[in-house]
Amino acid sequence: MGKSLRGAITDHLGSRVTTIGFAPIERFGDAPENHNPANACKDAKTIIVFGIKVPQGMLRSPEYNLHLLHRTYHTVYVHLDELGLEISNFVESQGDHLAVPIPSYAPLVFHNMEPWGVVSLKHAAVYAGLGAFGRSGQMYHPQYGSLLRLGAVVTSAELPGDPIIEDDPCPPKCNACQKICPSEAFDVVGKFNKMACLAYCIKHAIYPLVLKDEQGLKHIERVINTAGYNYWLKCDECLKVCPNNKHKPH
To answer: Are residues 127 and 213 both part of a single domain?
Structure first.
């Protein structure tokens, strides 16, 4: 039953996603507290992870790179969320299963002022065999690099998992992203600091007004997940220089 349902899910999504992978919940034993997929779905057995590639053209735009990046990301996030809802209902229609769509971006959960996804989609993608972590902390697909935006569904249906990719996705001695990073988000040994990157990259007109005092910061989760959802991206330099994001033949 699991194998046939897995095939039905893949067929149902068809060409609407670039790639899809499956991971048993057992692979998430070392997930951060409260961010295991089992926290999202009762009796969780499997997470289904799917990705849609964003076009390289937006990175190469001579004049409107960040404008196009902004609209592309926020368009694909909505599309991924819609697909997650659709697949959840499809899975539940195929038997006595539960299924929960995982947000592609917001709502986020804040711990000590640090934003987290309900489930880390990068980790889920790695466990589902879609790629491996590189030196930048990004998940790199063998063909599409870090150009995939991700969505997921957690379900109580037990579905066969995909093999995990063990190979280092980064070219030997490559540190292009570290050298170009304007936020200096990498330390002297190349370790990536997520908060340094986010503070530089993620901008919204409402943040300076609402998050300027203690009362605003007290409600940061509510602000980010409502008024701040359609944020502006100030930087994509690491995406531009990464050799994994260059065109590769199918």
So the answer is: no
